[in-house]
């Protein structure tokens, strides 16, 4: 972390107002990140009828990789073989996460798909805990999923399965990102993974554009998703994490399903009933409570700031 961004000494005359202002700025960035992320996903869904989820994801990955390469300028030539193996693993789950999520959004809607996807980071946090609070959060989240999906013969089981696959990929992405944080300095590993994903998706993007010949508006929707849902969140998170504690970061990340449900309702014509909104609230609360508990547990034990930051920085 750059020394120029360090907070003033506690003994400085204006330290308290400065600290409060910095935290408020960080919270604003986190709220803006969530809004940009889900707005990008909603915008991407408008291109599904023409490009399909595969085409949209390919264009999104290419756009995000290009923007992050230009903004971050990682030293790719300096990476070792061991570092590249971790980068490739992260790129694989990164691409799989976005493809399965967008395929789920097309079938079951943005709000439900994003809420189920957030079971991934919740599972990672709960896997290393044996506390009663975390066990209670796991039970509450499982019950909320049953209420939210309400399995029955008419349910879109494939769409639900794709959203759960996205959750598994996100969990894997978090674990790979932690390893990247240990092996590669700063955010170079995450940006390298985004670049690899873009390179793999490039032939698919070219083929889709050649076959479908989308209009400018459809193309703009797909490209906007790469900026709003990947590039903006990564860069904004970098700034936010310098201003807010890791636990607070986790709490505000947990609000994403609410953003997704509201945006889906207002702009995509999606409908959730009372039990559905209650189930989303339970999952959001479980994520937030687990984030706070995990932060307190890590603060009391050996710190791994690089790994945690890398996991939080991982572009989505």
TrEMBL record:
N-terminal signal peptide: none
Organismal lineage: Bacteria, Bacillati, Actinomycetota, Actinomycetes, Pseudonocardiales
Compositional bias per record (Low complexity), positions renumbered to this chain: 8-24
Native organism: Saccharopolyspora montiporae
Membrane topology type: Multi-pass membrane protein
Location of the region described as Disordered in the Swiss-Prot/TrEMBL record: 1-24, 296-316
Subcellular location, principal: membrane
Sorted UniProt keywords: Cell membrane, Membrane, Transmembrane, Transmembrane helix
Compartments it resides in: Cell membrane
Annotated TM spans: 51-72, 84-102, 157-177, 189-210, 216-236, 248-268, 274-293
Keyword Disulfide bond (UniProt): no
Family according to the record: Belongs to the EamA transporter family.
The EamA domain, residue ranges: 158-286
The protein's name in its UniProt record: EamA family transporter
Any one of the GO CC terms: plasma membrane
The keyword DNA repair is assigned to this record: no
